[in-house]
């Protein structure tokens, strides 16, 4: 899966929530200061070229929708992170976040609960 820039990922985050939208609707959901219409439109075209977004014509405009689900992108991104920085080991990745104190014992307990649910 292709990598997204921060700006592209930001647009995708809004589009995943909206499910489908025109450029103006995407901008409406963005925080201040809002980007220019042309900026968002250009990023949408880049996302089309990367095959993350598709559109349908509606009147004189376009309605855009994600071709890649948020969960598929999240999984690919997590796999890439584990592969590039932790030799493919999720154990090493979790250990790293523990050492950085980014994970609490409560967080780990919740992760273990999720793992146990998957096993059941």
The value of Rg in angstroms is 18 Å
CATH class identity of the largest domain:
Mainly Alpha
CATH arch. level architecture of the largest domain = Orthogonal Bundle
**Number of separate domains:** 2
End-to-end span in angstroms? Answer: 31 Å
Walkthrough of the structure:
With 120 residues, this protein is mainly α. It has two domains: 6-66, Arc Repressor Mutant, subunit A; 70-119. The protein contains six helices and two strands; from the N terminus they run αααββααα. The protein has a two-stranded antiparallel sheet. A hairpin with a 2-residue loop joins strand 1 and strand 2 (61-66). Helix 1 crosses helix 3 (37-49) and helix 2 (23-29) crosses helix 3. It is elongated. The protein starts with 5 loop residues before the first helix and ends with a helix.
SSE blueprint and pairings:
Layout: H1 6-18, H2 23-29, H3 37-49, E1 53-58, E2 61-66, H4 70-86, H5 90-99, H6 105-119
Helix pairs in contact: 1-3, 2-3
InterPro entries: BlaI_family, WH-like_DNA-bd_sf, WH_DNA-bd_sf
Keywords: DNA-binding, Transcription, Transcription regulation
Pfam family, one: Penicillinase_R
């Amino acid at each position: 899966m292709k990598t997204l820039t921060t700006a592209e990922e930001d647009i995708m985050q809004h589009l995943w929530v909206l499910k489908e939208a025109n450029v103006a609707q995407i901008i409406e959901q963005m925080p201040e200061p809002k980007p220019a219409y042309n900026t968002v439109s250009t990023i949408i075209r880049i996302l089309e070229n990367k095959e993350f977004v598709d559109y349908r014509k509606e009147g004189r405009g376009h309605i855009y929708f994600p071709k890649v689900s948020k969960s598929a992108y999240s999984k690919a991104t997590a796999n890439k992170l584990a592969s590039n920085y932790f030799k493919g080991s999720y154990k090493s990745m979790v250990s790293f976040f523990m050492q950085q104190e980014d994970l609490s014992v409560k967080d780990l307990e919740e992760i273990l609960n999720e793992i146990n649910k998957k096993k059941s």
